[in-house]
Predict the structure.
Amino acid sequence: MNLQVTVLKILVSYPDRFAVVADLNRDVAILATSGPEWAERTKRLAARVPGLDIFSDGLVERQNGA
């Protein structure tokens, strides 16, 4: 769940809210190693949306070749 919150947070920072997987992986790694504050923040955010599924909920779309 925390990963999904992190992905949403990352995508809002990109123009047109679009990023390729390599960019997402890089940014997730940066946030994951930024300290315990980020982990605690995403836990709190994830607790507010139990059952969140960014793909099934239509918040994130996968595109082939992107």
The CA atoms of residues 11 and 18 lie 6 Å apart.
